[in-house]
Write the structure tokens for this entry.
Amino acid sequence: TTVSVSASASHAIPTTLYGAMFEDISSGDGGLYGELLQNRAFQQVTPNTTAALNAWVPVSDAVSIDVIADPFPLSAALPNSLVLTIPPGATGKLGFANTGYWGINLVENTNYAASLYYRLPASISNAEIPVLRMELVAEDGTTLAAHITQLRANATGWTQVSAVLVPSLTPPSTANTLVFTIEGGAVVAPAGLQVHFALLSLFPPTFRGRANGMRADIAETLLEMRPAFFRFPGGNNLEGQTTATRWQWRNTVGPLTERPGRVGDWGYVNTDGLGLLEYLLWCEDLEMEPFMAVWDGYSLGGTSVTGAALDPFIAEAIDQINFVIGDPATSEPAALRASLGHPEPFPLTFVEIGNEDFVGQAPGTYASRWNSFVTNLTATFPQLHFMATSHTSGPVLTPTPQHYDNHVYQTPNWFATNSFMYDSVPRNGMTFFEGEYAAISLNSNNLFGTPAQGRLLWPTLASAVGEAAFMMGFERNADIVFAASYAPLLGHVNDSQWTPNLVGFDAGNVIKSTSFHVQKLFSTNRGDEYLPSSLPDSSASGTLAWSVTRWSDTGELIIKVSNSAASPADMAFVLPFANVSRAGTAQVLTGAAGTDSNTPEMPELVAPVTTVIPTGAAFNYTAPAVSVTVITLTTQ
Ligand SMILES: [NH3+][C@H]1C[C@H](O)[C@@H](O)[C@@H]1CO
């Protein structure tokens, strides 16, 4: 195949072309968000049930623990507490432990910040006052770190205890626990003792040392991709099953004692410790533009709010946006932002109105809800761009959307043969965000089924190669495609609500998938202008796709190639430049079989290999079977 490249660019490659989509789908709590204790504040649980004690266990049968609706709660937002009951004369390790999110990763000589609130239902009159011991304990019972503090005899009000725990060694597994025990032996409990606990927390060092920040290894992995934007808070997790359980920005900002959490849309409670300000600071740290969604009246249970009933939610969206960009002098939400330490507005251009309003009953009311939101938001924020989430084929929306968020989940082969999807889209001023795409299954007749029905647990090499072909279409059509992101971004391997995910993780490991490598290769070799070239075969039998872009300042050329065929593809490149470097760099992602995946067992089975290849004004390159290649060379 000969590829002749044009000397003049046809269009710019937007800086926002490659980014990340995020929602809490086994990805925030227990993942990107740094908190190591699961169910840390008993949020949104039913008191006096076993489920309310999720991730909490007693450490001896001499005591009992129960989650209650506390008569004197820590706060209105956190009404529940854990009551430790020590019967008279009890001895031994009198306490309870948290087992984390399928484990707690601990590293020696690292500072872990523990904190909790406790209160005594009645003052203790004993001579000896009980001691509270916090310990990091390994699977075999070894104490890795300990901190003791004396309880205050008259602490009938909530009292906070904070401590830094430093493991003396790195334990052999992540099956570690944080153990809380009361000591003082029989003296403590001549008549027995009860202690109430609330908002118990353990944080490792966070990414960039941010308070209430992100887990560093996952954050560093996402930083590797250099995503240019970050879409949040969803995705389904924006919507709620009902209006009442929608994502509400105010409940996600301010002190953790003021955040009630919510029943998320992926089968577990969200702490909302990862909230709007944390998302925005995270965008700042990774230099990503926020693509922020506002709740738009539709909930996944099928209900819609329309007409005048929508007004309070439009006001809520205006407040949410003002929290991000408002002037503290004139806007209460902006003043709240300033009071939380960020007086300056955050950058914001794109606001998405809802999520996937093409599902269920949503299309029936989206035109009306879109009109209500966009009419009001445009009046308040004329500088913002609003993205529609219904299908471009309908319903007809007014005002006409400037941008649509398209989603596609398909088979690896579908992606490999649909890289021309945007070539035939009319150029009428409308531009597109391919906000969610992924090779999800080998079964085109049941894409969202189970693994037994063809669903992929992990991205495969064939997934990544297909997605790369599809992404060539983004670059060739970057005059109308301004952003694209794989979804979902992250998933906990022990409890994923969705597979495959771009990055898998467990308590101690991060797994970079084959698709992650493609996202990183494209995002870190983007170029800023597109050079037209001979077109690949756009038919269903096309197996070879490529894209040529350039950095206009340096003249550096980037040639991306995707070969989904089971055999190598001989290519000849013809470049119309005088001073093409005689050697270029080739980063090649390939493997033994298209079915290869990076998994917890073999996290690096498939990884890019960088080589130097001969290049020049005309050069040959053989793309290996089932591979993605990024060639970089200079032209001046
Ligand atoms: N059903 C997918 C579409 C929705 O927007 C996401 O929440 C889900 C996983 O990426």
